Amino acid sequence: MLMDKILSRENLIEALKRVERNKGSHGIDGMSVKSLRRHLYENWDTLRQSLRDGTYEPSPVRRVEIPKPNGGIRLLGIPTVTDRFIQQAIAQVLTPIFDPSFSEHSYGFRPNKRGHDAVRKARGYIKEGYRWVIDIDLEKFFDKVNHDKLMGIIANKVKDRMVLKLIRKYLQAGVMINGVVHESEEGTPQGGPLSPLLSNILLDKLDKELESRGHKFVRYADDCNIYVKSKKAGERVMTSITEYIEKKLKLKVNRGKSAVDRPWKRKFLGFSFTSQKNPKVRIANESIKRLKNKIRELTSRSKPIPIEMRIKQLNQYLVGWCGYFALADTPSRFKELDEWIRRRLRMILWKEWKNPKTRVRKLISLKVNPNKAFEWGNSRKKYWRIACSPILHKTLGNSYWSSQGLKSLYQRYEFLRQT
């Protein structure tokens, strides 16, 4: 019985460790991840029995709205930590059953595969001459999954009725919004450990269809790019694949966001490409805008935060950001961003020094000629203009910020490219 594997000690211990490691927010019951281990210790016998006899009822998910960079909102459903634990235990047992038969062109939420692999594969197609892309956007995919269609696919490989019943219960657990539970007649709650696997199970049908047609494609969750050699071929494929997705998979293609275009005019997983015959991976403009907005927030002049704290917060964000975007083949971008960040910080210091006397004194302490210090200290130029002036550029340059602990994106990029 599959339920026995799900409830095995080894599987449950691994599921608990994964949930604790991933941390995450609380569900509708307010229980934190830190409280999960004790909760299971005190209630496990009852919980296990209810799972075995099919009487366990998952809690509705907590609705969280995440703003999208290009407008609109992404709806997340946060399960309780207990339900995350059970979903994780189910996912660990189902993954070895389904994953081996998934397409090699599917990269999202799979063992030993990641987004970078998908971007490299896409670059390879462009290099081979497939210089048009059908960029398909599935409209609110996680909210539109047809339950009957999905359960039918799962039932082809999973014969344990208790497991099937439990998965359907999770699909239909509902969403709590402002204290009111709303039923779920379609969709998989984006936010639980089981959701990525369920999405791959359904979209594997799309992968197999694309493979049977001989297409060059990459898919990461609901992001699917198909590469062809001409615009005419792209428009033909877009029409036929849209029809397949909507009629066979019962999903909706967002025609406003989907397009047949040049790959360098589109973004994929935060990246884009150059238009050369041997294309390079570059950071998409939208990703740069998002980074700059975050840095503006961390370096806002309206927030009276000590410079040491700002640098600490910046480092935490920049190290993670660079870890992902170091795949890009454009080192100059990282140098430009370093310069821009240092200019933001110089602007903050200039504002903090406030009156002319303080500015003159601070400049002299930085070994500036007293006459020059008096001239610049009494300047009426705007903060942003002064932040790029030769005097501050020299005194508050690279070595100064390095001594303050600021990590360089470019140096981090070079290090990651060499390792």
Outline of the structure:
The protein has 419 residues and is α+β, with helices and mostly antiparallel strands.
What global shape is seen?
Answer: globular
Determine the oligomeric state from the structure. single chain
Strand order in space, largest sheet: 2-1-4-5
User: For the residues shown, what is the average pLDDT?
Assistant: 90
Please count the helical segments: 19
- Major sheet description: 4 strands, mixed
How much of the sequence lies in strands comes to 5-15%
Query: What would you call the structural class?
Result: alpha+beta
Note the gap between the termini.
45 Å
As a percent range, the share of helical residues equals 40-55%
Provide the succession of SSEs.
HHHEEHHEHHHEEHEEHEEEHHHHHHHHH
Radius of gyration: 26 Å
Low-confidence stretches: none
Q: Please tally the β strands and state the result.
A: 10
Would you kindly provide a written description of the structure presented here, covering whatever features stand out?
With 419 residues, this protein is α+β, with helices and mostly antiparallel strands. It is 54% helix and 11% strand. The protein is built from 19 helices and 10 strands. Helix 14 (356-365) runs antiparallel to helix 15. It is globular.
